[in-house]
Design brief:
- This protein has 180 residues and is of the alpha+beta class.
- Helix content is 46%, strand content 15%.
- The protein is built from five helices and four strands; from the N terminus they run H-H-E-E-H-H-E-E-H.
- A hairpin with a 2-residue loop joins strand 3 and strand 4.
């Protein structure tokens, strides 16, 4: 009986020590009281992306999703976060229609990828982010920047967040190619 209790106590101490060591390895999130010198995510808004270019980005994203065998919903919004083009690929999840649009709107309105919100909540425990209007804290929304100005954003949904992001990145890459 005594040996069993000792073993249980030792196992508990080993587990506690491991948890404390893991906790000690976690970086301390930046303080919310820190005042940055420069305004983050301050790219100016530019002229809105037109329908023809938005459709070409949808096609590039769709080609990437098709190549990988992923059924996606893909949305492109303009610099004012208004829907310009949308594609629901055959078999794409119905719930992801509005999510793709919402990711694109969030990326445009907040001038940053939606992954920034995911990281802020998941890695830095900034729970206050969930109180902000129109936030989607899931990767898969990326601003479209041309000549240093935001012309819109792309949002993808239907897979995992990382799959959604890969498809969005194909659209961003296509924007770079068409803008040259």
């Amino acid at each position: 009986m005594r040996l069993t209790c000792l073993r249980t106590w030792l196992a508990g101490m080993v587990l506690l020590t491991g948890c404390l060591a893991l906790q000690a390895q976690q970086p301390t999130p930046p303080s919310l009281d820190t005042v940055p010198d420069k305004m983050p995510f301050s790219e100016p808004y530019g002229a809105p992306i037109n329908a023809q270019r938005a459709q070409s980005l949808i096609q590039a994203a769709s080609a990437e999703a098709t190549k990988k065998g992923w059924a996606m919903n893909i949305a492109v919004v303009d610099s004012g976060a208004n829907l310009v083009a949308f594609l629901r690929m055959d078999g794409a999840q119905l719930a992801s229609i509005s999510i793709a649009e919402h990711k694109a709107r969030t990326a445009a309105k907040y001038r940053r990828p939606t992954k920034a919100f995911e990281d802020a909540i998941q890695k830095n425990d900034y729970k206050y982010m969930i109180t902000l209007d129109d936030i989607v804290a899931s990767r898969g929304g990326i601003p479209l920047v041309e000549n240093g100005k935001i012309i819109g954003a792309v949002g993808c949904s239907g897979g995992t967040g990382s799959q959604d992001e890969v498809v969005c990145q194909a659209a961003v890459a296509a924007l770079t190619k068409t803008g040259q």
